[in-house]
Design a protein that fits this description.
about 525 residues, globular, about 20% strand, about 40% helix, alpha/beta, 7-stranded mixed sheet
Length: about 525
């Protein structure tokens, strides 16, 4: 029997739904095996930190140099627009260079030395600990960020910084962009003397499953839906040798507007909310999807401002027509729930576009029973839910029903922000938000995730499947494991753990921070 022909991988224009070009074919199990094998064989070549830093910087330079081509390819496949994509490319190359700086510094190795002390009870041996790469990492590209969370994105950059080769499963929404970026990364590898196997790329749904199940894959990073991420997470856990799976799955990103904040600046909050929920046609993972706002005159002013701002938003294109169909079905089902109203009805803006809108209902309906539980789930696209509360007890009851989130936002009044409110509302809400989310935003909006050492982009399940971050230089910790050496002869120690600190690494010696 003849083998079945490999399935083609098409680049599709989301503005028309028409195929642009065939980019590749879906990878077979044998091709996944070849890619993983090449990555596995490349591990020793990444051992030198100076080479890793050079790779990351060279990749950033090549992406910048090819910026016009990269942005054109990404816009053709995502309809995100040159302006948005120009900013995303800058973020991506900044992220690569930030990881290079982190590799040069070496603090992520977390070097710790405790000298032997026979006077302790019990006596302490000589112990020296640092972190080493896990091995080959599977990266699953995101749909909504074709650069910053895809082939050249944070999972790839952090894994390479940690010393781990990557095999990337391209997202079907931007295969041509993925191929272009992978070629640039491989060229960067060649330019610094690394084998191109350090960066592999495969296409296809089955290839994604084959990848996470491959025995030489040691960890995985994913950004996408709860359904897809949970399936891969379970596959990673079901392996004969389970591996860490760091998945970003879904988030409602609740917002609480206090009565004091609404009274002080209802119009500004309404306009800010409209901008945050429609940014990128509502396709940000940190889009505010549920807003608790007060009943009464101040809350009414907020609703009026939100209505005006959302009504002025132009219809937009979603990343693909499958997402458009899911959005239309999602808002239709939510709007049909009892007690739900639509001051601005979200829906079809045209044959290929969607229009922004929002839904409202009493907060008590969300707190009472399971009838409205669908409103507590993310709906990908330009829609949010405004739940009107009558007292703080309703706010607490709704927050208590929410799953884990990437972000939680508080809009506080001046006295609450300064801690001068007698009832401690600001501090109490901050504690509630901290229990819900990995990043708490006060008097701002969660859209926009700064690349910084103190950033945390993660949260309790289902926001993520681990406690790690996928943004910021500490993201490299996902791909490392600690190892300790006890009473090891100095001549046999890795350079990172030698007494004279030949690499000039920051470290802790006998419990005290020490810098070269």
């Amino acid at each position: 029997m003849a083998a079945a022909a490999a399935a083609p991988v098409w680049s599709v224009d989301p503005r028309t739904g028409k195929r642009r070009e065939q980019v590749a074919v879906e990878a077979t199990a044998a091709e996944v095996d070849t890619a993983v094998g090449a990555a596995h064989a490349a591990r020793p070549a990444l051992a030198d930190r100076a080479v890793r830093a050079a790779l990351l910087r060279r990749a950033a330079d090549l992406l910048d140099a090819a910026g016009e081509r990269v942005i054109e390819a990404a816009d053709a496949e995502t309809a995100l627009g040159p302006g948005r994509l120009t900013g995303e490319l800058a973020r991506t190359t900044y992220q690569l260079r930030s990881f290079a700086d982190s590799v040069d510094e070496g603090a992520f190795l977390d070097v710790r030395i405790d000298h032997a002390d026979p006077a302790l009870t019990p006596p302490r041996p000589d112990l020296r600990r640092y972190k080493i790469p896990l091995g080959t990492v599977a990266v699953y590209a995101a749909s909504n960020f074709p650069l910053a969370f895809s082939v050249p994105g944070g999972d790839t950059a952090s894994a390479l910084a940690a010393g781990c080769p990557v095999v990337i499963k391209a997202h079907p929404d931007h295969p041509a962009t993925s191929e272009l970026c992978a070629a640039l990364l491989r060229r960067a590898a060649a330019d610094v003397g690394l084998p191109d196997g350090v960066i592999g790329l495969v296409h296809g749904f089955q290839a994604g499953l084959d990848l996470v199940r491959h025995p030489q894959v040691c960890a995985a990073g994913f950004t996408g839906s709860v359904r897809g991420g949970r399936a891969l997470h379970d596959a990673a856990a079901a392996r004969p040798h389970p591996i860490p799976f760091h998945g970003e799955l879904g988030s409602l990103n609740p917002v609480v507007v206090t009565e004091s904040a609404a009274a002080e600046r209802a119009e500004a909050i309404g306009a800010g909310l409209a901008g945050a929920m429609t940014l990128g046609t509502g396709q940000f993972c940190v889009k505010p999807g549920l807003v608790l706002a007060p009943e009464g005159e101040a809350g009414d002013r907020l609703l009026t401002a939100l209505t005006a701002a959302v009504s002025d938003t132009e219809a937009g294109v979603l990343l693909d027509h499958r997402m458009r169909d899911a959005f239309l079905d999602g808002v239709r089902t939510r709007a049909a729930l009892p007690g739900v109203q639509a001051p601005v009805t979200p829906g079809a803006g045209g044959e290929h576009t969607v229009s922004a809108g929002f839904l409202t209902l009493p907060a008590a309906a969300l707190a009472e029973d399971g009838t409205h539980d669908l409103l507590l789930e993310e709906c990908f696209g330009p829609v949010t839910v405004l739940a009107r509360y009558t007292d703080e007890a309703e706010v607490a009851a709704v927050l208590a029903r929410l799953p884990g989130n990437l972000t939680a936002t508080l809009q506080l009044g001046a006295d609450e922000s300064a801690g001068r409110d007698g009832a401690g509302r600001g501090a109490r809400l901050l504690a509630d938000a901290t229990a819900l989310a990995g990043r708490v935003v006060v008097n701002g909006w969660p859209t926009g995730v700064a690349v910084a050492p103190a950033q945390h982009h993660g949260g309790p399940y289902p926001a993520t499947t681990s406690t790690a971050t996928s943004v910021g230089t500490t993201a490299a910790e996902r791909w490392l494991r600690p190892v300790a050496y006890q009473d090891t002869p100095p001549a046999l120690l890795p350079p990172e753990l030698r007494e004279d600190n030949p690499l000039g690494l920051p470290r802790r010696v006998d419990g005290r921070a020490e810098h070269a």
